[in-house]
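Feature request disguised as a bug: please show the residue count (319) next to Ketoreductase (KR) domain-containing protein in the output. Example input:
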Amino acid sequence: MGNLASRRFNPSTDLVDLKGKVAIVTGGNTGIGLATVRHLARGGAKVYLAARNESRALGALKQLEDEGLAPGHGEVLWLKLDLSDPRDAKKSAVEFLEREARLDILDLPTYHSYVSPVAFTRVLIPLLQKTAAEPASDVRVVNVTSIVHKLVPLSVKFDETSDFNIKYKWKLLPGLTRYGHSKVMLSLWTRSLQKQIGANELAPVTVISVHPGGVDTFTHNWIFPRFFKWLVSLTIAQPDVGAYNSVFAAASKRVHENRSAYRGVYLESQPTGRIAAPNPVVLDDALSERLQRTTGFFGTYRCLIRVSVCTLFYSSSLF
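Example output, currently without the count:
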């Protein structure tokens, strides 16, 4: 599975020049997020590892330091980001604006869904557009979703807060479907954001949603971890390879060479960077408008705290 996932893509040779570029990677202290940080930093970017827990973030920074960043590689800094509350997410984005004058890559491999990532992203939109207006820019936003969003029925709606809290008890896999429900929202936001900030050809921004594929971010917590890591590796990828689809969307040469083909698309991981058809509901512009109206992103932040769909039942790295 790992070999198939990596086919046609090698981050050591297939990334654009990232020297002088600034990136944010959420959930960057572990799993796919940490692997994404590693790949982008090795490509020369200045990467903000966005995470809530300081000790874990500093531990991840120490791990990267011990691995060594050779001359010409970028640097990695911690950005405190708590996605459990959209108000805290907004504060973190404001803090970033005070520290940096550009943002080339916003990569959101997160276990939280929709509301906080969107609140975080919206504060950063003016800086993304400012950077995109510079000569030879290549600004990208990557939202990590999941293939399980295809489990969500075509009848899904977002007209009132109760629509966010459907239990899907009649489904064979209700927990997975609830998780997919949250990823439908994130996928709708991806396409909406592309339309909002990608229409200006003088400052184009590429917005992509990706399914990372199956990734082992759990066997290190099991009994006999070395054995189970080997066993699981026969079917799913380790985080460094599992991050390939996210890194492809964030910085690959192929996207740079044909940006118009990748704007607003959904990528699956077999092979890396494959444009795939999402759940048809993701293509429903009217549904997207209702989602944004209900959650109040064109007005106040009403509904954000009340929406409980952000409670996750499975790790996105598994699906």
